[in-house]
Amino acid sequence: MAYDDRELEELRRRKLMELRKQLEEEEKRKQLEAQLEAQKQAILRRIMTEKARERLANIKLVKPELAKAAEDLIIQLVQAGRLPVPVTEAQVKAILLELDSRTRRDFQIRFKRK
């Protein structure tokens, strides 16, 4: 009986260590993501006007995936020299419309009458 208890304790200890390791890895990943997001926001603050940043913030509330795609695209375009600094609200609108039109699906509903 004592042998089974030791085995059970060893299994519990291993499982606890695995869980702790997973939590540590998850925490590191979250910290890295937060750090990258902070860097991205700092870049956007430097290259965009206040109104343009407000526009993206409003979009982020409604469509976070569209706002993230727009942020990434804006940074890429500025780095490539294809978008002048500072990025204005009108330019952000155009980028958002283009991205939204690429991802939007049109639905048609047809009724068949008998």
Outline:
With 114 residues, the chain is mostly helical. The chain is built from 4 helices and no strands.
Please, could you describe this protein's structure?
- The protein has 114 residues and is an all-alpha fold.
- The protein has a single domain (2-103), classed as Helicase, Ruva Protein, domain 3, CATH 1.10.8.
- Helices cover 79% and strands 0% of the residues.
- The chain contains four helices and no strands.
- It has helices spanning 2-47, 50-62, 64-79, 89-103.
- Helix 1 (2-47) packs across helix 3, helix 2 runs antiparallel to helix 3 (64-79) and helix 3 (64-79) crosses helix 4.
- The longest helix has 46 residues, at 2-47.
- It is flat and about 75 Å long.
- It starts with a helix and ends in an 11-residue tail after the last helix.
- The mean pLDDT is 93.
